[in-house]
User: Fold GATOR2 complex protein WDR24 from Daphnia magna.
Amino acid sequence: MMQHMTLMQEGPINTLALNRDCNKVVVTGRNVFKVCEIKDTGFVERDNIRTGKNSNLNFSCNDASWNPVDEQWLATAATNGAVVLWNIQKSIKLKQETVYNDHKRTVNKVTFHGSEHNMLLSGSQDGTMKYFDIRMKAAVMTFVSNAESVRDVQFNPHQCFSFAAVSENGTVQLWDLRRQDRCEKQFTAHSGPVFACDWHPENKTWLATAGRDRAVKVWDLGYRPVLEHTVTTMASVGRIKWRPQRMYHIASCALVIDSVIHVWDVRRPYIPHASFNDHKDITTGIAWRGSPDVLLSTSKDSYLIQHVIADAERPMEKANPICVTYNSKGSLTSASVDRNSKKNKHPTLPRKPKLESEDYPAVRCSIYVFENVKPTPAQVFRDCAQNYWLQTTTGKSLSEICDHNAVVAANAGRLQVATIWRVVKLLFGFSGLEFAPPSAVASVGSSRPVPVNKEESEPGDSSKDASSRAGTRHQSGNVAFPTQQTGQQSEPLVNGSGSNNSNSAPTSNSNERGVSDTSGGVSEEAESEVEDIDSQIMLSHIASGSHFNTSDFFFGDAEADVLNDFGDTSDSVQGSKNSGETDQQQQQQQSSQMDWILPCEAFQLRHEIKDRSPPPEHFTSHCFAGTRIEAQMVEVEDTTSALLCLPGSSSSLGTTCWSGVSNAVEMVYHMAEEGDVQTAVTLILVLGDRIRHLLNEAAVEHWILAYIDCLSRCRLWNTAALVVKLSQCESVQLRFDVYPTHCNLCSRALQRRGWLCDSCKTITNTCSLCHLVVRGLYVWCRGCSHGGHLLHIREWFARNTDCPTGCGHVCEFD
Assistant:
């Protein structure tokens, strides 16, 4: 029963080598050179070759190889460039048999032939390989690799005259011992230096290589080198060894950083089959002990360790059994372990048990693919670019363009962009709305001057003047509340609450004291009472919310209908008064009329003050007779709050209302910051001068160029040309005024102004249909560079969509 064993040495160990029976191992290093016997209980040291006073650099070894046929011979590669042959059966002082000093630099590798015990091969840092016959005192052949260094050499166990060599320039060379002038095959295996190679013990054409590019590659050298498998590791690989009796298993150790030994299944190259992490420093040598279950290794931590595969860690058991991925089209693929698979319960004939390498990928998985039926972002971009309206010069209004673009965005699934277009319509789509004259527009929250009367009074008609003044002064915006006259008295006006003002004094030709105006003019008290009634009714209108101006506020598309209904209701109320309806019916109609108005005052207005102080004595009533009444201005505080002001409307005092331009600019910058240059550029082109002066020209140019680049990638040439036309950027228009032409054969840009290609020396302006040179107007496609006569191309695309040359490109002809 094999077990885990360790043996510590005096210093770091560089390599190890096993004998033919795999019961002895030699470990070598700069200060270590020992032969140990492997027993079931542990390692037993047999010979320490480095003892004695005559130790020199020949005892410092980089590599060692035990003769597989004759166990008495051992070869080592010294750091001083010597290849030393040792006879293990002799005494310690006589063990050094022969020293070969044919190499000029350090020897990296030595190896014996698998069947010929006299054949020895070495590879050195000087870029040469030496073939030795141990019966002779010098090298028999020299093979030059034309590389800076040879890092590993291995005899082919299936062909006795062939060997492989790997170099630091990343190449692999196959040599024949019978021909030393050149190699039989040479190919580049890695992107960096190759440090190790190993022939497969069963497959005659497989060669494994490992290098600095952190990869172990398996090559099939049957007819020509073909890469069969690639194993990716986390560090540069220094040593590799195929696992005996396992077709797809190979062991590797790192040259730097990683001290773990991994056993890989080349069919599953990303997760090791087994791992040994007993060493604390870099592993320098590995060898299978003639069995697939036992592995020997040495390290710079001075330990020789025997590993048992049963004690190895299994990274696959710790791996996540579920994985999910998706492609560029939005399709989702998931793989998971199928734990519900039922085993076959029916009895079957006995068969040969499977090997471990065959059982390794025995995990049964289920793969589910979910295809995306929704359009991809690229398709959404293409659909929006093709269907957006970008200009108002086509006879479409801004509102129609916003509605169309909102529908296009909503159909493409971009609901946020569709909402943006609807908001833009609300902010800027009021071209058909009629504004009130500036005299009728009052600033919000400021004192509103209201004209009292500008008519002339005539003698003998004071009641008419008073009633006309009351009817003209009691106005709020465009909505008037006229007073009704019956004989010499006027009906009381409807206050803001919708009820009759019973406390208001009627308008008449006599004052409250019973003194009539004999001169036919207007008495002072009557004029004062009329003004008080007007002021009270005005304040009542303001308090009740009925004092508003349609040109100052905008509550939605149905405002005009509400105001018309309100005017119709006022007319109906006036008609009901004329027809003799009762006060209760009038009150109910007025209440239903004003139900939608919210009061703006927190407190009710106080009642009218009846007891007034008399006017000054020098203002007598006769002074007004036969004179012109001057227009008076009553300052009324407008406490109504505007919810939305119409774009472009301003008060009579010159105050500019909110127009929404700043919000549109913020939307453009927000969409650009989110990466949606399509929406940002489209908003700029549609709104034009409304927001262009508030944007940074450099940023606008950058967005337009990015959008044109995206359109070019999607081959939307017509849309890109339209964007360039509407961009209003000179740099953009100058940049895209000239379009490069390409050859329709070699696809290279034409250098001359003509249609001759300097690369393939052909004329490129031949018609794709009649195959004649076009001498007039030449129409060509920027996608495939094919074209022809305008008439021929027009007739062709009237019936077809593909290119007439048969190249398969779907040309766009507009």
In short: The chain has a mean pLDDT of 75. The longest helix spans residues 524-544. The chain has 15 helices and 39 strands.
